[in-house]
Amino acid sequence: MTQAQHPAPADNPDLGLHDPLADSFPTGVEGKLLYWIAVAFSLYQIAIAAHIVNLTSQIQRALHLGFLVLLCFPLLAALRGKGRGAKMLAWGLGLLGVIVAGYQWAEYVPLMMRSGALNQIDVVIGVIALVTTFAAAYVIMGPALPMVAGIFLIYALFGQHFPGPLVTRGYDFAQVVEQMSYGTEGIYGTPLYVSATYIFLFILFGSFLEKAGMIKLFTDVSLGMVGHKMGGAAKVSVVSSGLMGTISGSGVANVVTTGQFTIPLMKSFGYRPAFAGGVEATASMGGQIMPPVMGAVAFIMAETLGVAYFDVVRAAIIPALLYFASAFWMVHLEAGRRNLRGMSRDELPSARRALREGWYLILPLAVLVYLLFSGYTPLFAGTIGLALTIMLILGASAALGLPQGTLRVIFWIGLGLLAASFLEFGNNALWLGIAILLLWNALRTGGRETIRQVIDSLAEGAKTALPVGVACALVGVIIATMTLTGAANTFGLYIVSVGKDSLILSLILTMITCIVLGMGIPTIPNYIITSTIAAPALLQLGVPLIVSHMFVFYFGILADLTPPVALACFAAAPIAKENGLRISFEALKVAAAGFVIPYMAVYTPALMLQDGGPLAQSIGYAPAVAYIVLKCLLAIGLWGMTVTGWFIRPLASWERVLTAAAAFLLIAALPLSDEVGFALTALCAGIWWLRRTA
Questions:
Q1: What is the C-alpha to C-alpha distance for residues 516 and 555, in angstroms, rounded to an integer?
Q2: What GO terms are given for molecular function (predicted)?
Q3: What is the DSSP code (8-state) at residue 195?
Q4: 646 forms bridges with which residues in the sheet?
Q5: Which residue(s) pair with 650 in the sheet?
Q6: Residues in Cβ contact with 665 at an 8 Å cutoff, skipping those fewer than 6 apart
Q7: Residue 595 domain-assigned?
Q8: CA torsion angle for 640, 643, 649, 654 (degrees, to 10)?
Q9: I want to staple 68 with a disulfide (CB 3.0 to 4.6 A). Which of 364, 398, 469, 689 is the partner?
Q10: pLDDT tens digits, residue range 335-379?
């Protein structure tokens, strides 16, 4: 069932040097133990999602964090080749995480009874929970997030000594520990709840699809569709990364998977290494704004705002398409400027053939999207999508043991009916079908190989979930501090005071805050922090609820492309064999629309399919949507011409000034700016038409 991936070029560097989690599980007894802990973690999460095991929400979160800590420390120590002493310490920290989870489970009811009056053991366990969570975050993602969370924790403990408006009334040590380590305010808060339910399940879903050959399918389709066009190699990167983003939702992960193929391909066709890396980083980060997964932030946003998941996706869909349209346009112009032709059709796979041979891989994703858009909960939809993917993998293997012809057709029809039965009987019918297929495959040599691939996917999914889960736990410290001290109100009041005089200044201040906080911090914790601090202030300034949250979310993503940190760009650096900062500057050019779209949505919410805004009130909702999309497309097109200096032919300096002015005026929400912007756009078009016909 598993299909071969597109091979990376022979000179491709070892990606594991950049990210230890890119490596497989280590060999030996320790490696096998870690492997089966990861498998047990995934099976536990599936059992929770399928309601095979039912636990209270608090215990469920505690066990989730316990698994994360147990797996995180020894796995990272083993993958980094640490010595015996470091490994013993790692296992000790991992077991402390298990003790904390066990204590939360065993003392669940007594802890509720002791709320507000913790005993000494409670405080000690709470401190251990904090220490292991901070340490796990440091080990797996570096110092940035632990430092930010540490500053907030210090503020909670010693805020009474801070100056001016930051001063607090002071809180007892035990009260701070209870706020951080118990209940649903701190490390066991909403972010960890979402990680323990939706996020883990969708990461596992993506892991199974990748094992089944989805990367190859997307790449083949992309090559067949746009590989022969001008600059086809770079356009393949944009399309394939966008498609992969729909299932993985991880920017850096996309860079180190699809980038292994697309970056060397772009370089071989004449693209500069920095530009090739920038295109891949930009397109990969766009996966986090592309429904249905959206880097898992969609689920957190829906939970935080108390809105349906569909509402979040609806707000994201047009900006996501515009983002990728911008990246596609930029690589087209760069190819034209450098006269980079497409690949020969003879060398490319057929998109039609790839879909004909691999269409069944899209079925679980299609069912998932259908369920999400039909109003089912993300947890139910994710469970069904995962179960269908496992059934597909096991069923394809089982079918190989049947003779070609009628019997195999009957088998697939029966399996399809069984898969569809969840609509009538729930997901229990799917798990029953999976159990039968497991037994069937266990009796065949080839089937046992497929079962091993399924188990590998369970282990890989758990490993992939580690950074996200640990980050979700640690940002709970930040949220708990702001809840305890009211720090968010202080910052929010400042933004509101600025916004009363100038909304644009408030937006710029918020953008800078998101980008600074995003330096080295993954998108999920960045969104949680900035949405807690800044988004409420934007709401008070009249920005619609979802638009305000999308604003901070977008700039949290763009932080991974912005110097000096630019995680996605530095992930692309060893593949492109280019300096990460140079890649970052190229990525900023390609991602220009990402900086424009949030601002345009604030002034015209119709861009995110939201009601409100003066334009919708004056011309109606549907015309407002059409108008703002057209204006966005024109602004993107003009900005691309300005940056590259090319459109059909090289542009003179005065022409680039003209296109820059037109793009700026279309973006600006000032009196008559649209009219002047459209006039300048028409002037540019007229000049080019006259020159072309001359």
A1: 10
A2: transmembrane transporter activity
A3: I
A4: 650
A5: 646
A6: 673, 674, 676, 677, 680
A7: no
A8: 120
A9: 469
A10: 888 777 777 777 778 888 888 888 888 888 888 878 877 777 777
